[in-house]
Design a protein that fits this description.
This protein has 24 helices and twelve strands. It is mostly helical. The protein folds into four domains: about 5-265, Lysozyme, CATH 1.10.530.10; about 275-350, no CATH class; about 370-435, Membrane-bound Lytic Murein Transglycosylase D, Chain A; about 450-505, Roll (Membrane-bound Lytic Murein Transglycosylase D, Chain A).
Length: about 500
């Protein structure tokens, strides 16, 4: 049955100009961006676990309802929000996407919000962010943690690889934490806070989250240093023009869907979940078989594990489970890990020898073995250079996978007997002394007496494994962006162990 469009009160719609752009009417073609996001929802597990709304009306029997501009404007005015929610022709077109053209997809999101919104609200609250910013996830991914954009942005919050890594997310061939709803929401909260510290305006923050602060800054410069979203509208990338209007429309639709005859799809699975840390490798199929949990459910609750392997052996990893299964998993953890282990983790692969390789392990016959203890700030490249051996040799001698070493780890190093005395002292030298031996003196960042006496700043020495965000968390009221700007680093600027960063004290 075709839907019927009802015009309330028979009032003709009038396009309302955006006051900040000198009464210029903005076209609404950019709503295509939102339509593509909504289409990304199809064929995911959550959709398969949804049932019609409580009223049990057939979807096509519900008419599409439209309202006069004055009604939309008044309703937006009545929504309490720190984000300004103006109404204009662009917002109107986006509202019609949610309440008309793509209402079936929106019904799905209304059901999925019961799972995602409480988690997002809780995390945003811990960072002091407005709860209503949760609607950004609707615009970013249509609440699909497996969403991937045309340019590779991934997950609930659509992080690009570089930004995800900069905000502490692990991304490799086994784990992609951009797809982890909890960890990616923490990263999104940190990113949003950093953007707010730059712009102090939520409209610009929302725009910058979509296209990056570089594009927003460029739009501000080209518009004569105007710092209002609607005044820089035409200077923004095309998709970003639809981003804030889409956010406003999503906010509206989430509040007034009932008035538009939209019935949420109710989720037909447990919304109560919890996480448990595992310290061994586990395949999600093992859990599914032993505990009789649908594999699709495990995959949906743990989308970050790209190969279905939870690599807990190298580092404790979290598994998200419905609470009703948590006790069983604690009791059956050994049985789960043992179930068909040879099939899921083939032992021959752990000890496989390559049939052909360009690397030929060096002979240690007649060589002298020395032991080096890994220090903070070390890496295999440094250690290999200090002993004049190959990095591949160090890996081979110590059964090291890739370049992963840990502080206080003992490494075997083989040298010629005639060089034993020269290299035996390496383990006891400072980093600067070891670098000086190979002709690479450490450049020490000198702090002047004036700087030392300046009580407005402190200096943080970077440790191995630190990120700018990790360091920012150690200092009250300091953001990662503050540190980057103060030290002349780019947003993706790299830091290294031993580097000293200037940090402004907060009063």
């Amino acid at each position: 049955m075709r839907r019927i469009v009802i015009l309330i009160a028979g009032i003709i719609f009038v396009n309302v100009p955006v006051s900040a752009v000198n009464d210029t009417i903005i076209t609404g073609s950019d709503s295509e961006f939102i339509e593509r996001k909504l289409d990304s929802l199809t064929h995911i597990w959550f959709l398969e676990r949804m049932v019609p709304g409580e009223d049990n009306f057939a979807e096509d029997a519900l008419p599409v309802v439209e309202f006069p501009d004055s009604v939309y404007r008044e309703r937006l005015h009545n929504i309490h929000s720190v984000v300004n929610l103006p109404y204009n022709s662009v917002v109107k077109n986006h509202i019609h996407v949610y309440t008309g053209k793509k209402r079936s997809n929106f019904e799905i999101m209304l059901g999925m919000r019961e799972y995602y919104f409480p988690m997002i609200e809780d995390i945003f609250d811990s960072y002091g962010l407005p709860a209503e910013l949760k609607y950004m996830a609707v615009i970013e991914s249509a609440l699909n943690p497996n969403a991937v954009s045309r340019v590779g942005a991934t997950g609930l919050w659509q992080f690009m690889y570089s930004t995800g890594r900069a905000y502490g997310l692990t991304i490799n061939s086994v784990v992609d934490e951009r797809r982890d709803p909890i960890k990616s929401t923490h990263a999104a909260a940190r990113y949003i806070k950093d953007l707010y510290n730059i712009y102090n305006d939520w409209g610009l923050v929302i725009a910058a989250y979509n296209c990056g602060p570089g594009n927003v800054n460029k739009a501000i410069r080209r518009s004569g240093n105007k710092k209002d979203y609607w005044e820089i509208y035409y200077r923004l990338p095309r998709e970003t023009r639809g981003y804030l209007p889409g956010y406003i429309a999503a906010t509206y639709a989430m509040h007034y869907y009932r008035e538009h005859n939209i019935i949420p799809r109710k989720v037909n699975f447990s919304l109560a979940t919890d996480t448990i840390m595992v310290t061994r490798d586990i395949h999600l199929e093992q859990m599914s078989e032993v505990m009789n949990i649908p594999l699709a459910e495990l995959k949906a609750l743990n989308p970050q594990y790209r190969t279905l392997i939870v690599p807990g052996r190298s580092k404790a990893m979290a598994i998200n489970l419905p609470i009703k299964y948590m006790g069983d998993f604690i009791s059956l953890q050994d049985s789960v890990a043992a179930y068909r282990a040879d099939h899921y983790f083939k032992p021959e692969l752990k000890n496989a020898s390559p049939t052909q390789s360009t690397y030929i392990p060096p002979s240690i016959n007649g060589k002298t073995k020395l032991t080096y203890t890994v220090k903070e700030g070390d890496n295999l490249g440094y250690i290999a250079s200090w002993y004049n051996v190959g990095v591949s040799d160090l890996r081979y001698w110590n059964n090291i996978y890739r370049n992963l070493i840990r502080i206080n780890q003992k490494l075997a190093v083989y040298v010629n007997p005639s060089e034993k005395e020269y290299y035996s002292v390496v383990d006891g030298l400072s980093f600067a002394e070891k670098q000086a031996r190979i002709g690479k003196p450490v450049i020490v960042q000198k702090i002047t007496d004036e700087e030392t006496a300046d009580n407005d700043y402190v200096y943080h020495t970077v440790r191995y494994g630190d990120t700018v965000w990790d360091i920012a968390k150690k200092y009250s009221g300091v953001s990662a962006t503050d540190i980057l700007n103060l030290n002349g680093l780019s947003q993706s600027g790299k830091i290294h162990a031993g580097q000293k960063l200037k940090i402004k004290k907060k009063s």
